Amino acid sequence: MIEIDDLRRSLESFADQARPAELGPAALNGARRRRRRQRISVTVVLLLLAGILVPITVLNLRHDAGPVVDLPAGPMRPHVVTAYAAGQKWYVIDPTAGRYRQVDGGSVVSVSPNLQLYTDLATVNGSSSVLRIAPTSGTGPNTFLTVAGWAVGAAWSPDGSWLVVPVLEAPDEAIKAEHGFTDIVLVDVLNGTMRRQRVDLDDRYGSWVQWADNSTLAVGTERRRYVGDGVAMVSRAGKVLSWHALPAAQSCAPDGLPAMPPIHDGKLLTCTNNGSATEYHAFDPRRGTTGPALGQMLLPSNVRGIPVLWDGDDRPVLSVTDLRSQDASYTVRVARLATGTLEDVPKGQPGAMIQVLVGSSDGLSAAGRKITF
């Protein structure tokens, strides 16, 4: 835990080259320039914080196949933009008021499932990171936790009681890591405690981590940076349960960019190129199986759409940008894979977004229904 005055002094020495997301306007400027070169889609999302080092058992690299995945039934839940960046400012949803408010410094890395809390990350002099957990309403205490190393995300468990934070190693003053992570930090949000664990992936590194359920993590693996080759299932206690190779050309993000696929009910939304169109599938990392195509999208060559949310059906939510636009802004669109079309931009959606996070509208008051889609 650190004092706010200490944090403010530390903020003055934050390097603009530090990895997003950082605290302060200068950091956001640097992040904005890099993200225009690299990519921004949400949900970015990873986590785990510092504490006791607990080794994880060596992976059993199995390639056994099983039946194709079964998709969960049921209607799609209403969605909402939970946070976004516009210009040099970040805004987060206030679920009670049903509108967005500017955050008081820093950025937004992730928003809790019930929309009550959000996280922010800052790298201090490239040697440690500060995780902030703050109320979305702007009222109430902030929690500050210090992580040794370069923390690169914060992902909430489905019930909102845990965070997982991956920690990268990078050369001094580097703007990107040479490889993925080997350490993660688990944060017990309710008790304010954390522990650090090493993920033994043999000759691989972690590229992203998400929650498959409240007790199991899905960890993307890679040998080359941003070239995913499989998914390891890891229990919250640190036990490696399985590893399965990903199907070829699974990334839904452009080449050379991080590719953290949306996850629903423990299944990942993956992509393959079918000629000029993108075909979407559901991949079950527990069994290493891929289901039949959910449908496909054919976007104009100047339009890029990256999935940021998926509810297990044929209507993923895409972050869409026009590559010809000089402002590199995004809109959020629902893709109808059955017909290969994009729905209109939802009414009430913020404009000129250069980063955007999307989540369920669970926890949003009736006053905010006008901005759901």
Overall shape: globular
Q: Provide mean pLDDT, rounded.
A: 77
How many domains make up the coordinates? Answer: 1
Q: What Rg, in angstroms, do the CA atoms define?
A: 19 Å
Instruction: Give the second-level CATH assignment, the architecture.
Output: 6 Propeller
Largest sheet: 6 strands, mixed
Structural class estimated from helices and strands = mainly beta
CATH class: Mainly Beta
What share of residues are in beta strands? 35-45%
Number of helices: 2
CATH fold group: Neuraminidase
Number of DSSP strand runs: 27
SSE sequence, one letter per element: HHEEEEEEEEEEEEEEEEEEEEEEEEEEE
Low-confidence stretches: 1-75
DSSP helix fraction: under 10%
CATH superfamily caption: TolB, C-terminal domain
**Which oligomeric form is depicted?**
single chain
N-C termini distance: 38 Å
Layout of helices and strands:
Layout: H1 4-11, H2 25-37, E1 54-55, E2 79-86, E3 89-94, E4 99-102, E5 110-111, E6 117-124, E7 128-135, E8 143-148, E9 150-151, E10 155-156, E11 162-168, E12 183-188, E13 193-198, E14 205-213, E15 216-224, E16 227-235, E17 240-245, E18 263-264, E19 267-274, E20 277-284, E21 289-290, E22 295-297, E23 303-309, E24 317-322, E25 331-336, E26 341-342, E27 355-360
Parallel strand pairs: 1-13
Antiparallel strand pairs: 2-3, 2-27, 3-4, 5-6, 6-7, 7-8, 9-11, 10-11, 11-12, 12-13, 14-15, 15-16, 16-17, 18-19, 19-20, 20-21, 20-22, 23-24, 24-25, 25-26
